[in-house]
Amino acid sequence: MKKGMGIAAAVLLLLGLSFVAGQTGNSAIVSVEGTVVDVLGRPLAEVLVFALDEGTGKVFRTVSDAKGIYIFQNLTPGRYTLRFGMQGFLTVESRNVFYDGKHTVKVDVILAAEGGTDKSKVLREETEVMEAEAKGGVVGGVMGGVRTQADRHPRMSDVAYAPPATHPPFNTEEYDRIFETGYLSALSNPLSTFSIDVDTASYANVRRFIKMNQLPPKDAIRIEEMINYFRYDYPLPGKEHPFSVFTEISDCPWNPDHRLVHIGLQGKTPDREALPPSNLVFLIDVSGSMNADNKLPLLKNAFTLLTQNLGPKDRVAIVVYAGAAGLVLPSTPGDRMDGILAAIDKLSAGGSTAGGAGIELAYKTASENFIKGGNNRIILATDGDFNIGTSSTGDLVRMIEEKRQRGIFLTICGFGMGNYKDGRMEQLADKGNGNYYYIDGLLEAKKVFLDDMRGTLFTIAKDVKIQVEFNPAKVKAYRLIGYENRMLKKEDFADDTKDAGEMGAGHTVTALYEIIPYGSKEEIPGVDELKYQETKISPEAFKTKELLTIKLRYKAPDGDTSKLIVQPLVDKYIVLSKTSLNFRFSAAVAAWGMILRDSEFKGQANLKDVLRWAREARGDDSFGYRAEFINLVELCSLIDQINR
Predict the structure, then answer these.
(1) Are 87 and 171 in contact (CB under 8 A)?
(2) How many structural domains are present in the chain?
(3) Model confidence over 285-313: pLDDT tens digits?
(4) 284, 287, 281: which is closest to 330 by C-alpha?
(5) Residue 279's beta-bridge partner residues?
(6) Which residues contact 342 (CB under 8 A, 6 or more apart)?
(7) Looking at residue 516, which CATH number applies to its domain?
């Protein structure tokens, strides 16, 4: 091994580069691989490793596993630049790594933490480790016992030393920009139109950041998904429509001069015996970027939970994709659990990500096993890091828009961190007539696949749209909280060709409007007077007690023509303390989201008030989700104190 080769600008310490005849490890394919450790020789998981083909410019990605091992397979021969990075550590490139396609190239690395590396301190720590090893003890997680030169991790004293550099933290997570909706005049813009959203990915992803003692990126916060993570106690629907509509109005907790309108939908819950059979295709990303404990291993456990709830009339197929896509389990009856679980257990990660090819094969498999009148659905599990074949978000969206016409729904479950592509997955689920979840642990997998499985898998209404008409004699201006990515044109409401959100069995959907009352002296953005027409409030608007009218359109899961529901909201004021638990808890979640986003519309909201509102409105919390929310808000308060 050549010590210290490829040391770059002092962000990363390359321990060595060697060539091995044949493949090391468990694979029989030659590769570029190695181990990533910290300065004390401890393995680093979740390190992002990029391989740039210096000839073609093509980029391949993978991550290190729990043992710090990373592997690139299916690389074409040539010269590569390797880049290693991880949030909290310094980053570097190793250039001119030659791979001939016949021999495995091994590149081991040490990552130094951000904020500088004190070599003398590291050497002192290494001495402590060696002394502990000699005594059979444990220091810093390193087990005692004498290591041989062959099996011990290289230490900083083994390699050339490089001082710290100033590169930014290494993180390629992607979130679509969110532009918050401002106040609109009820006189000049009386209609507010949007698609419903029952996705919950944003809340689970935000929870992941906070549990790591970090505040999430602003664009990771979709307030409607945070609100709709929780269930609310709304009246059950009647026989005419598959869901009921609930409304409530009171003071706005974070702005006493404003009002808050709460709109809730409650989906019907059919008997389990009445549910149609399911034709499921598990589309699983097994690329190198999924090679981490919180990705593929967690994914396998999550799908195991789902499989245990299937019956003999259900069917399951498994499609995987990495450098290429393949069918690893043909469509199989749901009660043949041993075969299904065995196929899941054999999955392993490696290679690049041919996501487009995997989606094509999954839809083909679902179509070949289509159950008329059944639940035909693809469940895609990935970190969203497509980089081979059809990889642009636009191309993938167009593909899925065409495929959804076949009556096959798409559910997306996101996993992992570091190179997570949130915006892409949200768009794909939206256009695929499905749902989007983020699985940050086994308990979330249980929530999605066991507790909420009925709604996740069985759609009771599709293309559900809401249009609210505000009475300008009662409302000066309004603002829809969240749903920025779900806005529709007013003309889209009655256009049955326009796609909208889906609602599952037993699901609830909640939306909040913040309202500036008519007669308020608060200034709102406006436009110059029109030259050719005049906008006036009709006399009837002043006479009615209606504050607004809610209109909803939806289609049956297999239908093409929408049905209309119309329900006015009478301005019946309720003191905030007397409002429902639904009203106050959802308001607390909305306020928390605005605080995390540092929204210009958060008013007087602060974490102390959010805690009080949430505790007072916790209500029946049999699954403990609201208690967890309270704990997250408390943790945010501690993070905020530390960051001051």
Answers:
(1) yes
(2) 3
(3) 888 778 888 889 999 999 999 898 888 99
(4) 281
(5) 315, 376
(6) none
(7) 2.60.40.1230
d(CA 65, CA 43): 9
Given the DSSP bridges, would you call strands 459-470 and 436-438 parallel, antiparallel or unpaired?
unpaired
Residue written as token pair 């909280």: 481
Note whether residue 607 is domain-resident: yes
Whole-number pLDDT of residue 256: 93
Look up residue 390 and give its DSSP letter.
S
> Amino acid identity, residue 63?
V
Could you tell me the CATH number of the domain that includes residue 30? 2.60.40.1120
Task: Give domain status of residue 174, yes or no.
Answer: no
Annotate 526-594 with DSSP letters as a single string: --PPPSS------HHHHH--EEEEEEEEEE-TT-SS-EEEEEEEE---B-GGGS-HHHHHHHHHHHHHH
- CA 551 vs CA 138, 187, 240, 464, 586: distances in Å: 66, 18, 16, 11, 22
Angle between helices 422-431 and 393-403 (to 10 degrees): 20
Stretches where the chain sits below pLDDT 50 are 1-13, 21-28, 116-127, 129-169, 388
Q: What is the pLDDT of residues 163-222, one digit of tens each?
A: 333 344 455 688 999 999 999 999 999 999 999 988 999 999 999 999 988 889 999 999
Q: In angstroms, rounded to a whole number, what is the distance separating the alpha carbons of residues 236 and 42?
A: 55
Residues 6+ apart with CB under 8 A from 144: 132, 133, 134, 135, 136, 137, 138
CA distance 259 to 247: 13
CB neighbour list of residue 260: distance below 8 Å, 6 or more residues apart: 249, 250, 251, 252, 253, 512, 513, 514, 515, 583, 587
**Cβ neighbours of residue 603 under 8 Å, at least 6 residues apart?**
252, 254, 255, 258
Last residue of a domain, one of 371, 401, 435: 435
Contact 41, 159 (CB under 8 A): no
What is the pLDDT at residue 130?
47
> If we measure between CA atoms, which residue out of 239, 40, 7, 299 comes closest to residue 156?
40
CA distances from 260 to 439, 461, 588, 632 (A): 32, 27, 12, 24
Q: Is 27 exposed, middle or buried, given 0-12, 13-18 or 19+ CB atoms closer than 10 A?
A: middle
State the average pLDDT for the chain: 83
140 φ, ψ (degrees, to nearest 5) = 55, 30
What is the SS3 assignment for 80? strand
Residue 148 buriedness (CB in 10 A; 0-12 / 13-18 / 19+): exposed
- Asked if the structure places residue 179 within a domain, the reply is no
Co-location of 335 and 260 in the same domain: no
Cβ pair 39, 120 in contact under 8 A:
no
Eight-class DSSP state of 153: P
191 sits in which H/E element: strand 191-195
Res 75: pLDDT: 85
Residue position matching structure tokens 């905020």: 640
Q: Which domain holds residue 381?
A: 275-435
CATH code, 394:
3.40.50.410
